[in-house]
Every structure is written in C-alpha cells, then in structure tokens.
Design brief:
Low-confidence stretches of chain A: none
Oligomer: homodimer
CATH superfamily of the largest domain in chain A: Response regulator
CATH topology of the largest domain in chain A: Rossmann fold
Helix content of chain A: 40-55%
Mean pLDDT of chain A: 94
Amino acid sequence: MRVTIKDIANMSGVSVATASMALNDRPGINKDTKKKVLEVANKLHYRPNHSARSLITKKSGCIGLIVTSIRNPFFSKLVDVFNKEVEAMGYSLLLGITNDKIKLEKKYIDLFIERNVEGLIIVPTIEKSPDLTQLYMLKSMHIPFVFCTTAYYGLKADVVMTDLMEGEYQMVKYLIEKGKRNIYFVTCDQSLMLSSLRLDGFKKAHADAGLSFSNDQIIETVPDYDHGYKTGIELSKLKPDAVVAINDFLAWGITKAFKDCEISIPQDVSVAGYDDLLYSSLFEPALTTVKQPITQICKKTLEVLVKNIEDDTQEAKTYYISPKMMVRDST
Amino acid sequence: MRVTIKDIANMSGVSVATASMALNDRPGINKDTKKKVLEVANKLHYRPNHSARSLITKKSGCIGLIVTSIRNPFFSKLVDVFNKEVEAMGYSLLLGITNDKIKLEKKYIDLFIERNVEGLIIVPTIEKSPDLTQLYMLKSMHIPFVFCTTAYYGLKADVVMTDLMEGEYQMVKYLIEKGKRNIYFVTCDQSLMLSSLRLDGFKKAHADAGLSFSNDQIIETVPDYDHGYKTGIELSKLKPDAVVAINDFLAWGITKAFKDCEISIPQDVSVAGYDDLLYSSLFEPALTTVKQPITQICKKTLEVLVKNIEDDTQEAKTYYISPKMMVRDST
DNA sequence: CTGTTAGCGCATTCAG
DNA sequence: CTGAATGCGCTAACAG
C-alpha cells in the first residue's frame, strides 16, 4: 500500500489535518511541527494522491491539448513549447492526438472533461463537416477552451492564429512582383478556415496588382507529402511559373515531383510553402515559406486561456500573430 | 456544478448504487432499470469523475511515457505509436518530455506516481552520471516500468531496444566490405549504453575483418544536428573515407558540413546514420542508415509492461528487436 | 496553533 | 434485483 497522509500523520504524532496543512505550506503552523512533518514525509517518500486532492479541490492542475498530428514537425514543436510553458505555469499537460479525426477529437474532449481539466487548447481537424457537439458541451459546462492555429467556422470561441490571409497575401504579392503571372495555389477543402483565409490572401494579391486568375489555378487536395507529390506530377504538365502550397509538407512533395520530372527550381518554377518547418531550411533547394512563430502563438494562446479560466464571461475574440516571410532558394 | 452520479440516480428514480452498477455494465441489473439510467445519463451528458473513480478503484487507467525529446522525428513517431497502442488497450497516455534532463525525468516520475499510473515507459536521458533515486523508488513501490530504446547501466529492469551492437556491426561491416579503411565513428559519451553498445559493433566489425583502428577515429560529441555540423567541419580536414554517426540527426549535420566544404558524398566520403528518420530518405543524398522499427519496439515494450503490471515478480530481461540496414545514396 | 468533523464522487460490500 | 451504509485520501471548515 502506498504511504498516505495518515501514515505520515501517525509517524509525526499529529493529526491528518495538521499534516495536510504542513505539507501544503499553509500559514498558522508551528515551525517545529511543520519541520517534523516534512521530515517524515520526505523519509517515507510521501507523494500526495492526486485523485484525492483533485476530488476535493475540484482542480486537476491539468491543461488539455488536442493536436491533429505530432509527426508533423510543426506540431511537434508546438507540443514541445506548450508543454514547457504549461509546466512553467504549474500545470500539467494532457495530450490528445487526433490525426485529423473528429471522432478522436470528441473522444479526447470527453476524456479531458472526465479528468477535470482546467482548460483546453484545440487545434481543429480538417474534417469537412465536423460534429461540434462536444465543443458546445464545453461551452455549456463553462470549461474554457481556445482554438490554436485555426478554428472551426460556426462556433464562437477564442482563436489564436497567424494572420493567414496576410501571410499568403505577402507571399503571392512577392511572387507577382518577381514577375510570376501563372501562380498555382495548392490548398485543401475551401470550406475550412485554414484554406479559405489563405485563399483570400491569394485573391487580394492578384486584385491589388490588377491581375486576374482562373479557378483552375486553385487545386484542392489533402495537405500532406504524398498528395503534394501527386499534385506536383500533375502540375508539371501545366507549366506554372510558381506554385504556392498552404504548408511546407505539400511544398516538399511538389518539389520532389518537379525534381523527378526534371523541372528546375527556381529556374523553371518557383515553389513556396507555409509554416517554416525546421527542416525546410535544410531542404534542397531551401524552401521559401511563411513562418508561423510557434513560441509566440503558444504564449498568446495560454495567455488567452488563463484569462478565460479566471473569467469566462469575456466575449470571444480572434488574436492574430504576424506571420513572417522567409525568402530562400526555391523562389 | 457538474452532473454527478447522484443527479442521474435521482432523475432515474434509483439509488446511487444501482446507477453505478448500471453505468458500469455490471451483471444482475434489471434490463429496464439499466436502460432508464443509461438514457438519463446520456441526456444529461453525464461523465464520471475520473478522480473519484480512481480514488476508489485505485486504478488510474494511465500509462506514463517519458521521452527525451519530441522534436526529434524518431521520438515523435514513437510517441504517436505508443499513444495509439495505449489507447487501443483502453489506457490513457501521460506524457513527459525531459529534453535529456535527468531532473525533469525525476520530476515526471514523481508526478506520474502521484497520478497513480499503472506503469511507466522510460526513454533514458543521456546524462552522464544520472541520479536514479526515483527509479529505485519505483521498484520499491512495485510500480512497473520498462526502458525503451536504451537503458541506464546499474539498474536491473526490463529493456526493449534494437540490438544496437548488431546494427552498428552490420553497418561497419558493410562499409569495410565496400573497401573503406578509415572509418570515423561519431558518438556520444561512451559511458552511455546507447553509445557503448554501438561502439562494440564498430569494434567487432573491425576485429572480424582483421583490421585495426585508432582511438582518434572515435569522436565523442552531443548527438544533435548542430554538433554534427561542427564535427563535420573538423572531419573534413581528416580525409576519412567513411563516417558513421550514431543517429541520423548527427549524420545530417555532418552531411551539411561536407557539402559546405565541397566534399562529395558518396564519391569522396560515405556517410551513414542510425534510426531511419522519415525525412532521411528525402534528404540529399538519401541517407544510408540502420532502421529502428518503431512500431515493433512500441508493441513489444507495451507487451512487456503489461506482463509486469499483471505479475511483477518476473526477472528483469532485455528484449532485442532486430535492426535493419537501409542502404541508400550516401554510401 | 492543532484536532475533530464533514464531505468531495464514486464503487463496493451486505441486507432486504 | 435494489438500497443504505461505508470508505478511498485528502482538504476545509470550525472548535478548542
């Protein structure tokens, strides 16, 4: 049997209540009693039972983080940074990986509710018509949550994300200024926020330059490496002078396809991504992309979450983090 | 206030005990009563309080996973696979990221003890003289744990890892057979198991071929990209005909340094890694490496852990997973 | 300053 | 088959 507070109370010759106060560093306790209790606790390697404490304090000391993927270096880093920041705040991190399945997202939300998380950070999936029941439930239960990097349409909640519209606008503007006139935009389902906002940037850049574009230049696919490669093969026949992908993974796949088709980058065609994965600068050619400043995003997200934990009556708001162009060798 | 089992008992017109039995699918309950209870629970979105349940059942339903890093794609995948497997077993995963700090490892072990994890999976740090107090405590508390991918010397416990000696042996043997006679071995502190076992493979391959080598060919450094680059710059002056790094990250850094020094791979020098990171095959030149079969490692680790959970009297053992040579363009 | 009492939400006896 | 009573380990009142 694990050593409980009762054991250390007995051993110290005090009551359980006194032991509890000593252990929790509460005021109004005799120095010597406290010292004694702490000594005993230390000698017996006492660890408080988290469940018992949580049951009575109604606090779990946990923040739930739901991410779509952890294999994607962008999210690896996001998780790493959140973990550090959350720990620094004295909380623990509970992690849920959905791999873009709304079903798993729902499951993790349920799980996290059971575990009484203080709040939730959610990176939405890319499912087309997501079932948001669990999210509505969170609202009705007044469990604070914040969307991170993107959000679901149709649900009022705080969001922290880079200004996707602005980021893509800058990228496309830059390409137009470089003389590109046949820019393809590789994205995912346009009903998704992360897709539609970026597309708005693409459109605005064209409009500002007085240029038109055809809908054929917009290609919808699944935003991963393999689909990037397939799309790249198709694109190779269309002779674009630039290709903008909504994330670096896609851009990598496209790049590989172009190489296999012996199309030179950036001589024959420019390729640009979005995210700025760690490895994108090691890639050949080093990828031009839009950096999402992860540390900044995480810090802001937690700041907003904590504000919600302390006061959940505030109006939902979207917080934009400035993206940053990273011009490298692929454009 | 959250809806409790008491609420659903009241609403269903039964006692708490009956509600509990119905909810937990216990035998000896009237079909109709059960149906009624389940309906009410569902309507009120009842979620059992995990702390309360855990307090009484003395089970948390959690497995703790302590990894060194999550930014390293090898461990990203490891975490992803463990997460899936653990969920499939009906447990939840608690994650601790140490970034190779023994201090954090200790902290997470304490935290996980407090949370009553059923068992622990530990990827050891690379600190030179680690303080193993917490690990001894786990043993004394009969909380099962299994080391994964490598282990600490000086502590008897189950280990699941690829046969590092065998893997490196195959790699070096292959290079020797290719005619390499001046092979440098880039590793980390030799007091660490992950280093010394691989070095044994390096030595054995030389011995088997009747070749000798100088200690200068063994270079100790920190096994990451940046240190790989630095080492690569130094190596460029030494004119090796092959370089074997104990992980792919190191090999990437070395490769980059060689490129910057205009040394051609594999014409001037062969470079080999270990791990087989997802991106190593996309790298240029595609990296020759030794694959650690992650899924297999994870499954075996969990199998061993579960065995320990059910019966912790078994003798500690090391389980070897066969590594696999991946010959690509860099050698 | 310390001990007594009560109760968090739940599962498990044991009567009925 | 169901309900009342008990207690998991801990903290929070309140007396003393």
